[in-house]
Design goal:
Length: about 475
Amino acid sequence: MTLTSESAGAAAPFAPPEAGTVVVYRGLTLFDGTGSAPRPGMSIVVDGSVIHAVVPDADVPGVLAALTAGADRPADTEAGGAERAAADGAERPADAAADDAAAVEVVDLAGHFVTPGLVDAHQHLATPPDRPAAEAVLRRLVHSGVTAVRDMADDLRQVGDLARAARVGEIPAPDIHYAALMAGPGFFDDPRTHQVTQGAVPGEVPWMQAVTDTTDLPLAVALARGTHATAIKVYADLDADLVAAVTAEAHRQGILVWAHAAVFPATPGEVVAAGVDAVSHVTLLAHEAATGPLTTYKDKPPVDHASLVTGRDERLEALFARMREQDVVLDATAGMWASAELAGDTPETSERAARNTDLAIALTAQAHRAGVELATGTDYETAPGEPFPALYEELAFLVRHCGLPTAAVLRSATLVGARSAGTDHRTGTLVPGKQADFAVFAQDPLADIDHLRTITLTVKRGHRFPRAAYTADRPQENR
């Protein structure tokens, strides 16, 4: 095929650096996300977009000597590793090591604290589509230490392009991993489904499909996969058998399944039994103890609130045990109902928000005690004029209201977040061979979760996003 244009395409000022671009971040205190205690006096050696070494500061000269002498680098985790390996195997002039050593950049982070990049496990970037608003949210996130998000079903025509632009570096943004939605036909009169399928028919597009027991599921899943989605999101109005069938077919085709914790009429226990990879909204788990049968998404029965807020309900305890055994991640969105965006402005809505907040606190704490892996999702964003994202509020809520240890919350926001997105093999911890995704803070967030607000630098795939580059901009550029 002959191309009609040799144009390089759009500029990519935020692209990952090329292999062979070596940067040493030294003098830092490291929380690496592996479960190890924080270590002071550490250095992270980054080669292009990949972590080459994590060592004490004193060991850096030896690491650089080996690196510039042509020693093997850790294998890349994505396409491009073969090209790097070939380049590494080439003959090097005798004086190349000296030249390379002179080219190494050193970033002094003495007195700073480093964690893996944060993950917001529940975002909606295009309901309805608004490209400037979405880019503003993404820009604030990446300048706040967030290196990845899960988009939990939207207009994937826009989200797919945002994900592409983020990945190649056209826009400042975290990596975006997104879901295509499946639900029963009754759900598709929801106004949101019309917002995300403008110009088409809700329920009849690859990213938002109505499914029944007569649906050709292999074809439906293949269509969803064609959007480049990471997962199928199982949402509403599906019974247990159909949830299980969708899950089995998605896994057969190599795609994750993220589900609402209750799908109506499928109960939380049935959703977990179907083998899904992650469930969202801890308050929906309360329907394992509903006082009536689950019927449809629009007709939720009451739950046994008094029993559940004790955090000791046996029905939930059994559910959490199954989730732990099956490695089902809980995207709790625990602080959602306490946010300014959802707190309500009438006595009725305020009372609903307060009851859901109490429920979220009790069940999240119970899930943590039971050993369930928690991811940190938000499902809302702070107002455009706010300097920091909703994720900071979620992490503080987990520490201050749910009683989780700060180290556990940071692990949830890093390694477990990566696991929820299916990317923990290449990110989520700071070890050699993984992506160079990390956040730098002037004060220790383990000592006080509000120290997240001392963010000074985000490194995503090796590219640096200084916080000052965000705060120094004119206010209208942050909207």
